[in-house]
Each structure stands twice: as structure tokens, then as C-alpha cells.
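Let's practice the habit of predicting before peeking. Look at the sequence and jot down your guess about where helices and strands might fall. Then scroll down.
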Amino acid sequence: MSWLDQLARFWPHIAAGFDLIAALLVSAHALLHKRDSRAATLWIGLAWLLPALGSLLYLAFGVNRIRRRAITLAVHKTYSRDVPENLGEPEHDGAEHLKHIARVVSRVATQPLTTGNKIEPLVNGDAAFPAMLAAIAAAKKSVTLVSYIFDNDASGQKFISALAHAVQCGVAVRVLVDAAGARYSFPPITWKLQRAKIPFAKFLPTSILTPWRVATINLRNHRKSLIVDGQIAFTGGMNIRHGNVLGDKPKSPVQDLHFRVEGPVVTELQEAFANDWAFTTEEILDGDTWFPAAREAGDIIARVIPDGPDADFENLRLTLLAALAEAQTSVKILTPYFLPDNTLINALNLASLRGVRVDIILPAKNNLPPVHWASRSMWWQVLQRGCHLWLTPPPFDHSKLMIVDGHWVLLGSANWDARSLRLNFELNVECYSREFAQEMEKFIAQKISTAHEVTKAEADARNIPGKLRDAIARLFSPYL
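Done guessing? Here is the structure:
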């Protein structure tokens, strides 16, 4: 009998042996690393009941952490990690309790609080894109850009032209695009970046055809920032796509919010980019080209809160819980995707029960219907304890913002869902400023003025088929 005949005879046993080993490894990993016993039970069951496929699914979607080597730069040695005493003169404006939020974040985030910052809101691509393009055009030394989605459309072409001109003028340019986000348009923008000779990289390229990359297929870089000469930054939740320019009446319009930032916190944004770039390309960005001396520009106290499935795991979730625990008068949450876990739901409800006014503002029409269905199945859980839930009219609103007690503001890329809080690499900024918070409260008040308030009775009155569809969608909420 030839070796081929022997292989044909014994291959089922060999395959069964490999599957047994894989199932045992999956079971051990799930038992040791899954914090939720229900999730561990589910994955173990899949590994044993779906030969080979269950183990492969666990590798792709169940391993939600990676190891990244953080780049330690000397740019923050002049800043103290102690909480500043002047968080907007709290002894005079009732914000003394906000120091407790600052202390929590100081213990979970790697960045210190910085003083002397200026932050300006930019509404939609109509305001944000011209400001960003003008900053790139004025660049003298460096430009760094990271975006989850960078579409090859009219707005994307303007950014390509601006970045290419900067390169031609001798400006050091680095562009980082998430590998999954680059697929939102075809041909992908990476083709144009390469043709224009703009230095770029794709974050965590993945493919089911490359098994060694399967484990990171579910981990995406959702961060958005543009930093020019290490002095001016733009960050928030806005992707680079023409749908954000509402004045041009795009086919799929999207409302969004971005911010122009100056001051020492820009250095922290640059450091976040430098870490992502080093992880992706192994190139270290350091020196005055990327990190010039920080200079004060305003009176906002701010800090960058990086979050991701690495050493920064659950930084943002802990920040949200701390903010909800310390709120005394009001909490305002503006988010496109609202799929909080039970702990966050309980924190929202407890705030409401303590007498805090909790307003949650969501889009009436979501760009992802299954997410809207899953979210709607949860609304009753916050409505029954007195939280207020508002639905804003179209076009779809992708804005992200949280304000506590008219003084503390959280802005950035993260949504209120498991994908943002556990799987994605996110970038947020916490701000302490009565004036800035009041400006953003006016922005939210304008949205509420045209929104529809959902009542508990209205949520309960929906028909059974609709409730069942929504409940089924909620089962997949950790993956939406």
C-alpha cells in the first residue's frame, strides 16, 4: 500500500485529531480569557459542535485582544499626572466633583491632563473639510492623518491633491487608513495615495485567505485625526467622504461633528498617531518635525483617551462609568449607535434615579437598520427609569458627544456599543470647561428642538412582530 493510500485511509483520523486539539485550545483560551461566562460557554460549545469551523470562528471573532508595543516618547515629561486644581475654578461653579472623574481617568489612561487648549467645533464636512484642507495647504514641516473611512470620491480627491502638494513642497506626510475602511469605495483610495507617492499604510490588513491574519479581522482602527506641524489638530467622529458635505446635496447625506484643536493636547493626539504608525510600519516618528514644543492656545483643560483591544482596553468604558457615577445635574449623550451593555444601562438608570436629567439623542433613521432594531429593543430599559430618549430627523446623524453637568465634555470617535468599547481602536478627548460645555449644550439643544421624544408607552405599544425582529437583532449586538 502506497503512502497516498495510507494517507487516504487515515486522513479522517488525522483531521479529527487536529479538530480535537483545536477545540481543546479554544476551550482553554475561552475559560482563561473570557470575562463573561456566557460568552465562554457559547464559544466552547461552538468549538465542539462545529468541527474546525467553530475553532476558526473563535480565532476570527472570539480573540478580541492583541499585543502592541507602546512607543514611549519624552514629550510629556513636563506634564504632571496630578489632577489640576483649577478645573474651571470648581469651587465657584459647582464642578468640584468633576475632579473624581479626572482622578479615575488619570489611573486608566496613559496621557496626563493638559492646560491651555483651544477647541472649536466644526459642523459637517461643509465646515470641517475646508478647514482641514487649508491647514494641510499651510503645513511647513509635517502632516499626519488617520481615518477609518477615506473614500475615493469628490472630497477624497481634494484631500489627495492637498496631501500630494504637501509632499511636493517637502512636508513630511504620513497617512494611515484602516484596511477594512479602505474598502468602502472602489477603486480604494490607497490606489490614489500610491499613485500620488504619498507615504501611507493600511492598518491590520486582513483576509480569510491568510490564516495568520484571521485573528485580527474583527479589530479595526476607528480613529480620526489630522495633525499639522504638531501644532494644529482635527479630531472627532468624521470620516473623509463626500456624504458629509450636506451643501452639495449628496446621495447619502450624513450629519457629523469634528473639532479643530490647538494647545498641548495636540501633542497627545500626535503621540496616539505615532504609536499606531509604529505598530503598522515599525517607523518611529520622533523629533521636532513631529513633536515641536507645545504652546498654549486657550483655557480648556483636556486629555486624550486612547482606547482599544490592547493595553488601553476598556479605558473609555471606565471613563463613561466614572462620568455617570459623578453626574449631579445633567447628562447629555449624542451618539449614532446606542447598544450599551447591562453595566452602562444600570449606570444610566442609577443617574436618573438620583435625580440627574439624562438625555439620549439618537438618529430616527439609522444607516444600519439591524443596529437600529437591536438598539430599539433596549430603549425600554432606560425609559422605565426616567431617562429621556430623543430621535432626530434625517439626514442620518453620525455625531458623537457627551456632556456632564454643563462642564465636562467627551468628544471623539467612539460609539455607545460593544464594537467601539471592546473591539475598535478609538480616540477620544475629555475636556473641562464651562464655556465650551455650554457651547456644545446649545448644539445639542438645537437638535432636541427638532427631535421626537420616545415615551415608555410608545416603546411598549409596538407590534409583536416588530418587537421579535428587534429582539433577534439584539442577540447579535456584541458584533454590530
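How did you do? The mean pLDDT is 87.
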